[in-house]
Amino acid sequence: MPYRELASYKRFEMHLTTNWPTSCAKRSERLRQQGRFGEASERVAENIVEDLFTVALDWQLGDINNQVDYADIVVTRLGIKYCIVETKRPGALAWNRTAVHNALEQARRYADEQKVNCIAVSDGVMFYAANIEEGGLHDRVFVSLESMEPHSDLWWLSEHGVYRPRIQPQDKPLTLLKPATVTRIAITEEDSSTPLLHPKYCLPAQCFAYVGDANRPTTWKLPYLLNDGRIDVKRLPKAIQAILSNYRGARVSSVPEKAIPDVLRRLASAAEQLGRMPHQGETAEVYEMLAQALQQVESS
Fold first, then answer.
1. Distance, CA of 112 to chain centre
2. Mean pLDDT, the chain, as a whole number?
3. What single DSSP character describes residue 78?
4. Environment class of residue 27 by beta-carbon count within 10 Å: exposed (0-12), middle (13-18) or buried (19+)?
5. 94: nearest Cα among 4, 157, 181
6. 52 burial class (0-12, 13-18, 19+ CB within 10 angstroms)?
7. What 8-state DSSP symbol labels residue 134?
8. What is the DSSP-derived secondary structure letter of residue 158?
């Protein structure tokens, strides 16, 4: 049955439509101190996220847990952890790819420690959630909390939607993030944490096509992004070759076979952003191989 026909979805939609204006009003009130003093603390963003889950969505206040093993917010029901949220002070993330990646790095480390497969980040302006699957992140929700219109996509974070697989076409990823730019508010030392880096490549987990455990750099394979989130044009083809051929003896055998399709899609998305895939024009052999492999993956 399509999820929009579920009784639980229809109840959610009515609840969201009715309560979104109240959630927006509470958000505006919480942000008044930002206008008054020029900035607001991370606690304000935590309060806004709490309102999102308990006013706009259908969670109870008792489902929201603060500072659980360093995680800012952990959403639970009957003791089961469903989502870990990392918050930053208002304006520190919107709409910057690098800032979001850094926050996700923190959230993922906490999630791997607590065995939770859904993570989210928010600064009270934007809210992004993803599932940890096959060594990478799969988009779940990406919304602007500044919008006066309710976002039906928030169903995927509701009480009866959060545990369901997100129905999202592979060719239509969420695309609200821009490349690395200056955020509205500069991120200070108190807003960030020391990232865990790979001992050989000196890169965080987000730069690898496969991450087995965000807390164990030895499980991070196939670097293909630079530290600032841009695509590494030198390492990308090497990462592809490590899976599809034997690049200087660097064939990767430690990536689980079931994760290979997702890893290939991740690398193909990067190649497409660079305009290197065959359908975008003449290209190198490695990208021809990648396209052929993807055809097999998608047809199986």
1. 14
2. 87
3. T
4. buried
5. 181
6. buried
7. T
8. S
Place of tokens 């899976």: 243
Query: What pTM was computed for the model?
Result: 0.83
Q: How many CA atoms does the CB half-sphere of 98 hold within 13 Å? A: 15
Largest CA distance in the chain: 60
- Extract the tokens encoding 263: 């890893």
- Strand 118-122 versus strand 80-87 pairing type: parallel
Residue 128 has pLDDT above 50, yes or no: yes
Amino acid present at 57:
L
What distances in angstroms separate CA 199 from CA 196, 218, 219, 237, one per listed residue? 9, 9, 12, 22
Contact 118, 45 (CB under 8 A): no
User: CA 117, CA 106: separation in Å to the nearest integer?
Assistant: 14
Report residue 75 as tokens.
Answer: 């959403």
Q: Residue with structure tokens 């690398």? A: 267
The model's pLDDT over 58-74, given as tens digits with 9 standing for 90+, comes to: 999 999 999 999 999 99
